[in-house]
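Lab meeting notes turned into a lecture example. A postdoc, R.K., suggested we walk through two folding results consecutively so the class can see how the record format repeats. The first protein's sequence and structure tokens come next.
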Amino acid sequence: MDLSTALRTERLLAIIRGRDAEASFRTVMALVEAGLPLIEISLSGKDALTVIRRARAELGDAAWLGAGTVLTAPDARRAAEAGANLIVTPGLGAGLEESVRQGLPTLAGVMTPSEVIAADALGVSALKLFPASAGGPAYLQALRAPFPELPFVPVGGVDAAAAQEYFAAGAVAVGVGSPLVGDAADGGDLDGLRKRAAEFRAVCAR
């Protein structure tokens, strides 16, 4: 399954940005066990590459393990070496270009029509509308008018209620960080994480 198909099928990308590497790893495992196999581990989190490497060794090909906040070409290369099979960027730049050059599935951060055109020309897998909260579902709907066939994934400030609105506006999936993960990746409650995962899965199944 390619990334675009996976996004349309699962409809949720879980985003982990933890201060505790062990807790981040446990969070990855809990999310996959809860039926959320699309996961982004931000490189701005503690020992993110180690988390990706451990999770890949444990899960094999059972999940999409992405590296997020990929800014530079070395970021992209290190992420690939750690086992990431998905690259997520906050915007256009060297990290995205290197990821595409390597043939890695990419979710490119965009906000404007010009950025959409540039990202699509690179051959990215999908478009991360970021920060989505700056425009909301109405902005996504307006942006899709000239780009109706492109896959958009809103990220930033997306809770369960907003997710429903973004789906109604045409999003193929949403990226969700703290409203889903909470404090789990910092050593917090995994039971709460599992409960929120079930709630988001229900929203995405509608």
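The second example is placed directly after the first for contrast:
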Amino acid sequence: MRELVYYVAVSLDGYIAGPNGEFDAFLVEGDHMVGINERFADTIPTDYATALGIDQSGGGFDTVLMGADTYAVGLPEAPSPYRHLDQYVFTHRKPEPVDGVTFTDRDPVELVRELKSRSGKDIWLCGGGSLATQLIGEIDRLVLKRQPLLFGDGISLFAPGTYAPGRFERVSNREFETGVSFTEYVRA
């Protein structure tokens, strides 16, 4: 069965973006980028990967889920940022149609369960924190790209939710000279 994988960069103090969605402080150069290209090339926006000559055909994802604010980060430069994946954007607004992007106001849990029941590769939960909290019970795997930064404020890895402890087990950890680490967990 397909897994829902929350793969995301996060600061040491637990933020995936600044208070206004800023993410420019995250390190985008260094040896950790080789790690991304090796295993997670399919999480790089299509145009950027093409420009760098990165092959995205062997990735583990065929679907990406985003909240409207996460999707808006790339606009207007890339209205279809991950054309190599099936793209779902959760929003209550009625945006103009974009080729390759499905805008939906469906219950995220319902849609994820439907997607998991289909054949295919894993499903990447790109962000943000509110969507991650709505899908917390459906997340099978967490891959945290922990960055050696403190934000002090911003969008949390998970938005505040209902107290319901859920255990994950660490399955791998990879450290890089940049101070970035990739830590992967699976639901226990």
